[in-house]
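assembly run, all chains below
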Amino acid sequence: MPRLLAQIAAVTAINVKSMPQRAWLSASTVVAVALVVAVLLSFLAMANGFEQTLRGTGSPEVAVLLRGGAGVEINSSISRDQVRLVEEAPGIARGADGRPLVSAELYVTVDGRKRAGGSKANVTLRGMGPEGAAIRPGFRIVGGRMAQPGSAELMVGQSLVREFAGFDLGSRVRIANADWTVVGVFDMGGSVFESELWADIATVQSLFRRTNVFQSIRVRLDAPDRLPALRAYLDADPRLKLDAKSEVAYFADQASSTITLIRFLGWPLAIAMAVGALAGALNTMYSAVAARAQEIATLRCLGFGGIPSFVGTLIESLLLALLGGLLGAAVTWAAFDGVTASTLGSGFTQVVFAFRLSPVLVFQGVVLALVVGLLGGLFPAWRAAHVPIVRAYGNG
Amino acid sequence: MNDFTLVRANLFRRKLRAMLMIVAIFIAFLIFGVLASFERAFSSGETTAAANRLVVNNKINFTQPLPLAYLGRVRGVEGVRLASHFSWFGGYYQEPRNFLIAFAVEPDSYLDIYRDDLRVTAEERARFLADQGSLLVGDVVAAKYGWKIGDRIPLSSNIWTNSSTGGRRWDFTIAGILRPGKPQSDTNLVVFHYDYLNETRGVARDSIGVVVLETVDAAVNETVAARIDSLFANSFAETETVTEAAFNKQFAAQFGNIALIVGLVVGAAFVTILMIVGNTMVMAIRERTREVAVLKTLGFPSPRIFRLVLGESLLLAFLGGIPGLLAAAAALAALRPLLAGFAPGLALAPPVALTGVGLMLLLGLATGALPALNALRLNIVTGLGRD
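ok done. output:
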């Protein structure tokens, strides 16, 4: 056994040292595998980043109330009377002034222009009172100040500022026949809210002619387990046909379809490309074996068995693939990790997210690379182990 | 023995190697054919839009409503031949996950404006116009749910409440099936009478989604758009009038830069095969250095040898590329029903196929150029000396 291992080590060393002789061909395999892995990881990083943004949005201590069956805020509609009734509900935390922490909000869609390419896209304009910021854990002003109630002032999320033009601090924006001023930029931990414009509820209601109409109510719960009490209260009152969900569950439900779509695009593409790269890897390894036919035959004459040749060739192939996989991961990381993009969320407005490469994804990419390396090395390795000694010399 | 026989024999001298190259090229063109066609169908709204069709939407955003009264005023604008309107219903069948693209429309004018895209028989049209509670169903939708003319179908809205019942359900009778007028027409929709919705939803009375209109000629589009927008300037609901193509393009762009993604993936696939095939061709010709020298000794002129080598790489590109495009066409045919709502008329379009052939030519030339040049410049004495 030790002798076999020593033989394998010797053959592998010879193979690896002879790689530079086929530098271009070996490099082309590495690059081919790297590109396959880069394509896969780009898609997976996109899905992962989008998922992190949605799953990172919402607090278990906040409940979202929508009109029954509306599903998402944009479809919902809630009256002022309903808001008053909800303020009486059990399970709701109170602020320092003793008032219940209830934020009735209006969600309208306005146009924004993407910085990249300048195309128009839907942006959320959320009208809310001062409670809106108070009930949201993690809210932090990073530039400027809060908007004044009753004014045409905007606060913008920092993801939105990065992705859309014209919303920088101090900018004037024309929306719904009014001139708005951006007075504050806020951070909410990269969540969906950071893709939004926030303004005073009364101003939004009057400019959009939706006086006394709201679309969602957010309440801060005493504790996350108080949601059933709130639900029981809503169910008991026929005037309150509202669905209550924890904010975490609300956003998690929105995540799935887009993420599934991106993953379903990424894997088949990567596998198809992997088949192409496999053809390249096989070609490289067959050439390597052919080029080494004499060496292998010599080793066999010296008493080396077939197994060292087999394993040595396989290791060479796996090494090339591993190199390609790591290179592909590095390229994806350098080119895409942290790059922001935006797409339509289920509220029919843009959600800004960043590509996020994670160790788990890199592992998946490297596994795909190694599969290519394994399959690409197996058949050539078999041939290496069975080179007829006489023919190998005859070819020279 | 002509040159083609020589090229073919050279290429398949190492059968396994040739087959591997062909597989790699095949995959790249399969990816190209599928993705480029998908991108084309996805953005088909842009290319299939009628040149003289304009969309009037609320300047704030197209999801904001317009007053119904705007329709009459748009009709009065010089240069407008036809105008209609449609409103998003937020429809679903039985359960929210059976989501439908449903519009409340002004029936007569809507079918007139979309006469080239949505086909209904005269009988179905008459039945639809006569009954305010009737529904026209796109063939894609009818096939999905197994609906037939005459069926009573309840549709629900996730936006509106039916004030006559207090629920979210409206009942319809299917009056006819909308069939595509052009291969890329999108028939994944249902349409019904706006009046039916307007009279029963209780709120948002007399508000509509967008006005769609046809100008007398595409040349006057800009003037007409400017006239309409100035008509409503400084009113509560200011408008923005754009061509249907621009409207569709902006809508598609909301999902993301699909063209860029497709470009990057196809680019990666092509760089891969360029590397693999290019290197292999250089290697294959180098292995045959002595033979090239022999050909030259026999009196083959250098340009002919150049053409022989280039012919070999071109043959390789086409042997992989053409089946790749054919496989793409088959894959698209299989995907077509699955993606009917997302990318209507998914098929390998002639422009995509032509681009593909162009790419095969480029690939063949790019991978063959260096080895062909090497063969061209080869000195007979060194060539024969090399082993």
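Chain B has two domains: 3-45+256-385, 65-236.

Residues 284 and 371 of chain B are 9 Å apart (CA to CA).

not gonna interpret more than that til we talk
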